[in-house]
Structures are given as structure tokens and as C-alpha cells.
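Hi support team,

I submitted a single chain yesterday and got back a structure, but I'm not sure I'm reading the C-alpha cell output correctly. Could someone confirm the output below corresponds to the sequence I sent? I've pasted both exactly as they appear in my results page.

Thanks,
R.
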Amino acid sequence: MIATSTLSENPQGETWLQTNRRALLLGMIIPGLLLTVAVGPLTWCLMTNQHPGLLLLFLLLAAVPLWMIGEFLYALAHPRIGYQAGHLLVYLELTRPTKVPIEIVECFFLGQGASELPKLRGREPETQNVVVRLAESASEWKHRDVRPTFGHWCEGYITIRGSWCEPITEALLKHMNQRLVEVQRERRAATQEATS
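Hi R., thanks for writing in. Yes, this is the structure output for that exact sequence:
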């Protein structure tokens, strides 16, 4: 059984694969601590009218962790894979998704590979991945530069690293593939109806 959050509606469209919320929340701990440490001296500078250079230094020290927290919050608000208006939304960048025409998406399947996490006992841990296969005929979609931490996109295959998304199960992949078929069927029917 798939959790109801897996294929939910949101302002960005329909969510097909959630992000790893736990990892993102853990990632906010260090920037949160740095921000907390920077706020004290910044407040002191503001209240005592210290030298503008010192104030600027503490503002910069507070801005970096604040920016990092903002990126994590943005990532928390978006899925790894979504669907909207005829496009598969692939979130492998921090700023915005890549919109892939749904017609060229063939299937989702389970993969395995490097997690891009720190080494444990001298070995890089592996993770299960979601792999999206695109149509071979879609040559303009063969490769994209993406953030390597989140996945890679090469030779018409998009790999979403499992360490940055919800737990990957056979049921989840089956549901994603079923939804893909439904959406593609609906779009073909709408196209045929519009032309007749």
C-alpha cells in the first residue's frame, strides 16, 4: 500500500516521489547552530552601535547559514519527481525542476549505486535508486547537468539517488509506473478527441 502522500496534489503539481524529509531536517542542524551563534554577536553590534565593519562581518556570518536553511526549506517543499500539465517534473537542482515531456518517459525502475554520502569504514555506502528511462528517440533529452549529490542524467537515463528521496519499494515503483501509463493514456485520448 502506498502512503497517501506519495501521489498527492500540491501547488507544483502531483507528487510521485517525495524527498527525504528526515535527511533534509538533519541537514539543517549545523546551519541552525551557526545561525544561533551568529545572532548573539549581531544583536550585540546592533544594540551597542559598534563599528560598521564589525556589523557587516556578523551580518555575513548570519547570512550564510540563513541561506543554507532557505535551500533546505525549499527542498522540503518540493518532491523529487512530480507531474504537472504534460510534464514529468524532475527535481535534481535546488532552484527549479526540469520539465520532461511525459510522452518520452518510458518507465521507472529500481537501480542501485553510490549514495554520495561520506565513507563508512573506508567504503562509500550504496543506496537504492529510482531510474527513469526516456525514449531513445528523444536525443535532446539524453543528458543534463544536474547536482551530483541528488542523482545523474546520462544516456537517456535519469537516476534519482535513494538517499535523497522517500524509501523506495517495489509497490512505490509499481504505483509510479501505473500512474505514468494512466497519464499517458489520458493525454493520448485528449489529443485524439481534439483532432476529431
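A quick pointer for reading it: The helical segments are 21-27, 29-48, 52-76, 170-195. Let us know if anything else looks off.

Best,
Support desk
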